[in-house]
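Batch 3, record 17
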Amino acid sequence: EAEVAQSPRYKITEKSQAVAFWCDPISGHATLYWYRQILGQGPELLVQFQDESVVDDSQLPKDRFSAERLKGVDSTLKIQPAELGDSAMYLCASSLEGLGNNEQFFGPGTRLTVL
Amino acid sequence: DQQVKQNSPSLSVQEGRISILNCDYTNSMFDYFLWYKKYPAEGPTFLISISSIKDKNEDGRFTVFLNKSAKHLSLHIVPSQPGDSAVYFCAASVNNNDMRFGAGTRLTVKP
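Prediction for the assembled complex:
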């Protein structure tokens, strides 16, 4: 069964360092999402891609976060510099299309701890 | 701005009984509602959904009810099984964009 792949699964870093997370969506899925889930809360959308284009990054803290999906397939989310409050689970999801009612498939997530 | 709320952080039921998980929302523009299930160390997995043009959708042991006038939806699991023990997230979107999630309800089904 096709799955969304994410790496690393766990990342520990010190504040002010740079971190990067990678996501490979299900083959053929045009829409890719990055979410942040803080402990005890639901996932919060950070950025949504349609192919290689950003369609929604209104919740992305652009002073320190960046995301790219250069070839419209896999994607990288970067944080520079990391802050203590960035400790969270970062989830990637993909769906066939961003319009209409399409189920989002989630990867296992990357758990980030900032010390 | 929490547009989707799950006010019960946890729920415990006996195996074989009905589990009812509740969700409230504030944005009347939401037109699609979903329930996701999450096991530890895994990402959320889609469980069941409902369009705003319907008030009920059933899939096996899982039924979702939507009450638009009350801005409320619920997930019924019957009969509940120990394998249903997980965190359940309610989510809502407008045309599948900007999906908003609730904080989740941890369901424990006791044998």
